[in-house]
Amino acid sequence: xxxxxxxxxxxxxxxxxxxxxxxxxxxxxxxxxxxxxxxxxxxxxxxxxxxxxxxxxxxxxxxxxxxxxxxxxxxxxxxxxxxxxxxxxxxxxxxxxxxxxxxxxxxxxxxxxxxxxxxxxxxxxxxxxxxxxxxxxxxxxxxxxxxxxxxxxxxxxxxxxxxxxxxxxxxxxxxxxxxxxxxxxxxxxxxxxxxxxxxxxxxxxxxxxxxxxxxxxxxxxxxxxxxxxxxxxxxxxxxxxxxxxxxxxxxxxxxxxxxxxxxxxxxxxxxxxxxxxxxxxxxxxxxxxxxxxxxxxxxxxxxxxxxxx
Length: 309
What we know:
Blueprint: H1 3-17, H2 23-32, H3 37-53, E1 66-68, E2 89-94, E3 100-106, E4 113-118, H4 126-137, E5 140-145, H5 160-168, H6 172-189, E6 195-200, H7 202-211, E7 218-224, E8 239-245, H8 249-252, H9 255-265, E9 269-274, H10 291-308
């Protein structure tokens, strides 16, 4: 099992432990990933034990380069950035090895730069399309690649769990190759401008993989609660704003390694840890959406891109 496959399996198990999935549904989804019953049962038990051990979440770090957030105390309004969001268009473009890639494209009226948007483990959903539109609304061309393009695209999966399972069975080398093609397409459509990458959950992990796999075209990146790869080494000088939820102990555990890797190459970086926020707190269509943390994260991301793109 690759690190990304393990991440998806642990996310399913964590959703069960936190009451978001029944045991039966969690077992079904783990089975779709290829885990046999004994392995699935063991994983659920292990995640339950970890949850018991970290019942009191750690406070956000006050270390240099790390900024605390605030808990949600205000009613939910429109998702951040949605008021000025622009529509997206479905496009295709050439991918690696002669493959055709599908994507959502949002063009800014007067682009100041370009942002590659990397989806969660559910594929290219309406939520991810909306984020591409939000970036276009504030002046950045945005491209969200469908990493299930070769399987016919996310829309061909009527069961979201099946889309997740399909992603979980693909080699991460294919993801990186497709995303590199996405960067090239974004560069072609945004000539002469700087580029960035933003990814969420699974896509946050892929953002880190781009930063550790040689992507010099990126001037900035903002991975949202994505796991840093085991023994990863940063290979670009992109300015990185890494975003975490203080309650997301599973992903937060990889933050020190990410910060150390960025320090090692002298990259400009900062970590924002949103207090009172859990994994996937930016997803306004999900059960962990936390509007105050999402608004603050969006403010920081837009400020970061205004500075480095």
